[in-house]
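ingest -> validate -> predict -> emit
validate: passed (alphabet ok, no gaps, 599 aa)
predict: started
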Amino acid sequence: MSEKNKPANALVTLRRALALNLRLRMKRGRALALVTLGACVLPGVMEALAVPALEGFIANIARAAQENTLAPVVLSAAVLGLVYIVMHASHHFCYYWRDAYDTRLNADLNAMLMCSMARKEPVCFEDTGRLDALEKAQDGVEALNSSCSLIFDDGMWSLMNLVALSVWLAGKSALLACLLPLTCLPMIGSQLILQKLSFDTEEKEAPVSRATTYCEKAMTSRETFKETRVLGAFGYFHKRYSKHLREYAGLNRALTLKSTGVSLAANLVSLAGFAGMLLVMLFELRAGRIETAAFAALFAGLLGVYQSICVFFIGFGETIATNIPKAGNLFKVLDMPERPGNAGEADGGRGVTLENVRFRYPGAANEAVRGVSLDIRPGETIAIVGENGAGKTTLARLLTGLYLPEEGTVLIGGKDTRAISLPAAVKNSSAVFQKYARYKTTLGENVRVSDLAGEKRSAAAPLSDADLPADSPCFPQGEETMLSREFDGVDLSGGQWQRVAIARGLYRVHGLIVLDEPTAAIDPLEETRVYRKFAALSKNSTAVIVTHRMGSARIADRIVVMKGGKIDDIGTHHELMARGGAYAQMVAAQAEWYEAAEG
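emit:
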């Protein structure tokens, strides 16, 4: 996200939040928006109407004492009771309706966020500067709608109360009618300051919170707790966790002290304003311009308004000030660059061409891929080999269209990846990555995840091709077996999960398929056997194998040797061995892995 588009402060974020929430409300329907508005206007108006109703009741009590008649008292009591009944009923209806409406708005905004995430440039997820916003964007959804609900709905409630009471006051004293809104200004000013403080603190807290969450997962997650206990690493992570918690607590303590001071100062100024109004009322009473009944009702009404304002600005206002920075994280995600390009369809089955391609990860000092040119022919199987950090995986992501080159061109089936959208670029591609997903769904759904809403072909064939038959004893319900103990299912070994991932890649209809070292949990000899079978299954597709094991690379039609982000050499296994370069040295270094296979 460019600095130009980055939310500069809390006011900008608040304005954007209100605009987005209003757009969601209109999308939900103007009728629903008007009903919600009416549900919040009515309680405020009824609270204001309670003041003249109370005045009439008190005046009729005084009249009854002089005229010895109860009829006016009974009538005014009935009116006052009706006003209070409607007021409390409208309160409860407003709470119910707002909760239901906010739930709908949260669902709409969550859907917008997920759709936006799907369109993001994948390289955004490699930018550590954006990870804080990515991890907190979900919290920003509820924070945004909650804040806007307080402003639009509770604000309308308080505003209507204030306006209606001011109109009634104008008939009693023009000075009081003017003073009432002015007493709210200190509260409004304090909230602007609180939002700025909270926004700045949220920026500082984000990396600390992410580090704290990481340490917590390292100590308690199912994937890491065994290792941290056995290797004695728990103490290390607990020490870091405690340190980050202290940092987080310190930031919150500083914010609390500043916020308390600002709120207290604003509250005292507003209280002084209401005290001044009380003095004006006493002066008006003494001058005979306000009757005793009106004074009593007005005093009760102003007390209620003051309490309402305090609740809104101090209670709700602090909530808004805390939530707006969280909404800022949501906007950071929404503002992240999305993949440009037109609709279309690239087909890697027709070959892939890279022309002088360069790529650098966000924040990295050096390029991961430097000036690579490569022509992969239709139906060809290419192996990409090299040491760790040579650029193998990055090259694979570029040639699938997942990443866009900073310089140069990637053509998938003749289509420039810069000119087409991400869905178009990967339409006819499949891949199995080293860090594959372990979906907590059934076996069949794990394999068919790329086409769950489509024709629902059986997962049996790709599972069999991956040497993990669905009818094996480890799957009691076959394809319907749940692969998660958390959901009363079974768990799989690392090797079995890798075969599920391979079956998933084979299931997807593809012209291009990439295997990016997905067999790390399988021994070298078994990996070679899996890759040989994969090459046979992919004979009608363009295939790319990324591996650091030379025994698996020899099955390819050509082998690309990466070194320092560049292509160091390219050729068949025999050609590369004959040259005696880096490839031959790596084969010699790994020869002992395959001696058993040679015998």
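Residues 495 and 521 are 5 Å apart (CA to CA).
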